[in-house]
Design goal:
With about 120 residues, the protein is mostly beta strands. The protein has a single domain (about 5-105), classed as Jelly Rolls (Sandwich), CATH 2.60.120. The chain is about 0% helix and about 50% strand. The protein has no helices and nine strands. Strands 1, 2, 3, 4, 5, 6, 7, 8 and 9 form a nine-stranded antiparallel sheet that branches. Strand 1 and strand 2 form a beta hairpin. The termini are far apart.
Amino acid sequence: MHHLVDITDMPLLEVWGDAVRARRVQGERITLALVEFGPGAVVPEHHHPAEQMGMVISGEMHFTVDGETRVLGPGGTWRILADRPHNVTAGRDGAVVIDVFPPVRADWDDLRVVDGGFPRWPRSE
């Protein structure tokens, strides 16, 4: 992988079905992902060994982390410690978020690469 890339040149991964897709930049010890949620997309409660931090870029997210629930809009952030339960539902217009995972999300290596559809961000206008 090159050191300098445009996120839209990265493969599009099917993370949670058709409604949640992501592009990622992978380092040796960290994953940076641009995740795009379709309207009302649901990611059911789950947990993983990687910590997770992120921020909403556009749209709205209904987030629950370890029992704490909030509605987050652009600029809203989250911190999820390793193996803590969390779930999310995108707002009616969907959402675009940035997620950061240390250590790398090696489990994403097995996700299906898909064509077309997204990206919703950045928009070419």
